[in-house]
Write a structure and sequence with these properties.
Blueprint lengths: L17 E16 L4 E17 L3 E5 L6 H8 L7 E6 L2 E2 L5 H5 L5 E4 L13 H11 L5 H14 L16 H13 L5 E5 L7 H18 L2 E6 L2 H7 L2 E6 L2 E7 H6 L4 H8 L6 H6 L40 E4 L2 E3 L10
Parallel strand pairs: 3-8, 3-9, 6-7, 7-8
Antiparallel strand pairs: 1-2, 1-4, 4-5, 9-10, 10-12, 11-12
Length: 342
């Protein structure tokens, strides 16, 4: 039975038990060349990530486009096979399972995709879209599946009688609700939400965020919530992981990371995020990063952020800093951590 809902729009508190444990995860995409099509280089999309997601929490994963966030989310669900490293789900290592073995785990691990316009098959009715996981896992009779679909549509705030309509008849926000209903069909424990609001109008984004939080409280869900929207990450997350060029560079409690950032990249991201208070916005110093993000094919030696960092010194260009505690329960991968101005 679902847990009782807590305060609407507030993330639930994690239990402390680790549900997903990511260890030294790497995803490298080979670049082939020559007459024989041999691998001549590799795109290091994810390059040695250690991360734990606790039962019942929302872990926000934030960073610029192209930093490896979505690749990491897909690798955790084994939609992309990792090049190296391990992923443990409920204590079981899953990254080396066969396709048929991992399929049986999929009922507990689902994904909400970024684009509600392309993630729903336009040839299928809404009822068939939402019922697809139930069909794939042979859950219930035909009537029981239909009843479950109607229940799910109601849970996400849609009319249960919409089962015979097609995706093109719905707005972007409604389509994302359909995608969320599909992700919930098998009662999963863990959901990767891959930028679920980035394709939506600003007026709809808060509604979808609050829906995700209400569902988390109602069904005791655990989210890896991927976004580049810092305000959304702060609103929905218990903890925040900041990603840059395939690496986690900062990790900690959401309020702590936002109020006391330790890594220069996090400081730069926060300086670019608009504030609601116009007086504070005028007084704030904006940090403009120089140069482009280095290529993941040929990342820089030492700290991956050093070519753009105003604090970089010789050690930053030679030695990669470990992700370690700089404050209680607050980790950063930086030789010279601390908030700006200290």
């Amino acid at each position: 039975m679902a847990a009782e809902s807590t305060q609407s729009g507030v993330p639930a508190q994690p239990t402390g038990d680790t549900l997903v444990d990511i260890r030294n995860l790497k995803v490298h995409f080979p670049i082939k060349g020559g007459l024989l099509g041999r691998a001549v280089a590799a795109v290091k999309a994810v390059d040695g990530v250690d991360l734990q997601v606790k039962q019942g929490e929302v872990l926000g994963l934030v960073g610029e486009s192209g930093c490896g966030k979505s690749t990491l989310g897909r690798a955790v669900l084994q939609l992309i096979k990792p090049t190296a490293g391990e992923v443990y789900f409920k204590g079981e290592e899953i990254s080396h399972l066969s396709t048929s073995q991992i399929r049986h785990k999929r009922a507990n691990m689902q994904m909400i995709f970024q684009d509600p316009f392309s993630s729903l098959d336009p040839r299928y009715t809404v009822g068939r879209v939402v019922a697809e996981p139930l069909d794939n896992f042979n859950r219930g009779t035909r009537q029981e599946r239909l009843d479950r679909v109607k229940e799910l549509l109601q849970v996400v705030g849609l009319n249960p009688n919409y089962v015979n309509r097609y995706p093109h008849e719905f707005s972007g926000g409604q389509r994302q609700r359909i995608g969320i209903a599909r992700a919930l069909a098998l009662n999963p424990q863990f959901i990767v939400a891959d930028e679920p609001i980035s394709a939506l109008d600003v007026s709809i984004q808060a509604q979808v965020l609050n829906l995700l939080l209400d569902l988390q409280n109602q069904f005791n869900l655990t989210y890896l919530f991927i976004a580049h929207n810092l305000a959304a990450i702060k609103h929905i997350s218990n903890r925040v992981a900041v990603m840059y060029l395939g690496h986690i560079v900062e990790l900690g409690n959401a309020e702590e990371v936002y109020s006391n950032p330790q890594h220069p990249y996090t400081i730069a991201l926060l300086s670019a995020s608009p504030l609601t208070d116009p007086d504070l916005e005028r007084q704030r110093k904006r940090i403009i990063l120089v140069g482009d993000v280095p290529s993941p094919v040929n990342p820089p030696a030492g700290c991956p952020f050093n070519p753009r960092c105003w604090r970089a010194q010789a050690i930053c260009r030679e030695v990669a800093p470990p992700l370690e505690a700089k404050r209680p329960n607050h980790l950063a991968a930086c030789h010279f951590p601390g908030p700006e101005g200290q």
